[in-house]
Amino acid sequence: MSTMQVQIATAEREVYAGEATFVAAPSVAGELGVLPRHAPLLAKLKPGEVRVHKPDGEVDEIFVAGGYIEVQPDQVIILADTAERATDIDEAEAIAAERRARELLESRKGDVDLARVEAELAVMSARLAWLRKKKKRS
């Protein structure tokens, strides 16, 4: 079975490093599927789920809030703005963060950077939807 090396990291830490037979990632142009010996490419990621299919048949699922994916024939490197496993996310805090972003957007008080708040709300909503989907499957 052919494999490739996969690394998923943020500025703060490495979230995943290992071999994979397939990687699926949420690019801004649509879901990107990568097999070993894929043609080189660089793509921007949007908030969503990265699925790493390991040689033993297990699948690691990691939420990324955006970033970039670099693909080489024998490796995939994802540099994410943030990256988390479902077990790392506190659902109550995720709900509170989404609520705060919504309230800030609705109030439009002071020097609120609307574009930044809208982007943050999109990430928070996608993160919470992903977490709820994962809980339903469990």
What does this structure look like?
It is elongated and about 55 Å long. 30% of the residues lie in helices and 40% in strands. It folds into two domains: 4-84, ATP Synthase, domain 1; 90-137, Single alpha-helices involved in coiled-coils or other helix-helix interfaces (Up-down Bundle), CATH 1.20.5. It is an alpha+beta fold and 138 residues long.
Entry summary:
The protein has helices at 91-107, 114-137; strands spanning 4-9, 14-20, 22-27, 30-34, 41-45, 48-53, 59-64, 67-72, 75-80, 83-84. The protein has 138 residues and is α+β, with helices and mostly antiparallel strands. The longest helix has 24 residues, at 114-137.
CA distance, first residue to last residue: 29 Å
Biggest sheet overview? 5 strands, mixed
CATH-wise, what's the superfamily of the largest domain?
F0F1 ATP synthase delta/epsilon subunit, N-terminal
**What's the CATH first level of the largest domain?**
Mainly Beta
Strand order of the largest sheet: 2-1-9-8-5
Number of helices: 2
Helix percent reads 25-40%
Form type: elongated
CATH architecture annotation name of the largest domain: Sandwich
**Count of extended strands:** 10
**Strand residue content:** 35-45%
Structure classification: alpha+beta
Q: CATH topology of the largest domain, what is it called?
A: ATP Synthase, domain 1
Cα-atom radius of gyration: 16 Å
Number of domains: 2
Order of helices and strands: EEEEEEEEEEHH
Unreliable segments of 5+ consecutive residues: none
Name the average pLDDT: 89
